[in-house]
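Q: PNPLA domain-containing protein, please. Structure only.
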Amino acid sequence: MGKEKPKISLLLSGGGARAAYQVGVLKAISEWYPRNHHSPFDIYCGTSAGAINATAIACYASCFRLGVKKLEWIWARLHSRRVFRSSTFGITQHLLHQLLARLQAPYHPRPPFGLLDNRPLRQLLNQANNYARLEHQILAGNLHGISVTTSSYKSGKTISFFQGQQSIEPWTHSTSKGRRSLINTEHLLASSAIPFVFPASRIGQAYYGDGSIHQLTPLRPSMKMGADKILIIDLINQRLKPRDPTQAPGLGMLTGHLMDTIFSDTMAAELEHLEYTNNLLHKLPEAERETMATKAVETLHLFPSQSFEPLAQAFYHHMPLATRSLMRLLGISPKDDSALTSYILFEPNYIHALIHLGYVDAQEREGELRSFLE
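A: Structure for PNPLA domain-containing protein:
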């Protein structure tokens, strides 16, 4: 009997507007397959904006190129106003509503805090995603599982909401849980709710925020859903020029540094741990490996070859005037504090540049990617 086909997981990390880079990578990969070819991925795992990308293409697991084309079409036509209320009136109204809600008596329910109102994103996700297709793809056998990772403000744990084949069991660890659920817009809004920037999203009786906040084990959802291989499209910011050590860090620099840490540091640590585990398993006799609860998992880590900051500096003036004014009011320079700007610059020219960067990076590693996927 032939060996069972290995399950390949696509893992997309978070990064706000930077996630357009992932679209470019997926666009390059999709061109290596026929038009009606099913997806090379059996499992999709995403956090923050990566969860939005993962869900969009998982809906089209039976036709990979179609799913990627639709995802690219959405990103290529994206504007800040389709993600958050970016007009002067919209921002002012939202901030006044936040202020007045906190001046009311304690027994009045208060909305979750966020500098920006992301209700336009809710409308966009409802229009763009047909969540019923996820279950159809699962029943047809085209999709093994999908996971959207969030952070629970109630328990302080990472909660991965997953939907997939019945063979996938929920999991519970000291810092993370996996809960079976029907993925919808609320899960995506929760996973992408960057602290202080976007408000937390309520699911059931609890509030959830960006999944990167407490995510100490980003590979766990893929492995718990049975992945044998994991392709990671990370959004690490490759800072090419060191900062001036004599310059005192301002609010923008501190916030950008904090967000870079939240979105990227834990991935490197877990990849090191997985490599150590794989090496130990390979040293064991095959008979012993088959009796163990864990298995060796192959990974390929893809990340940008260039820094996001020069692109954010080049296109920061495309950001709506009201958003730039709000940042300056908070003591943040949209141009100089480009690490932070790179997360919320949902403007066409910047997004096109990121898609192109992802496409070129994937083409340069075509041989390595093809070998991994085939």
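A: Brief note, in case it's useful. The first strand starts at residue 8 and ends at 12.
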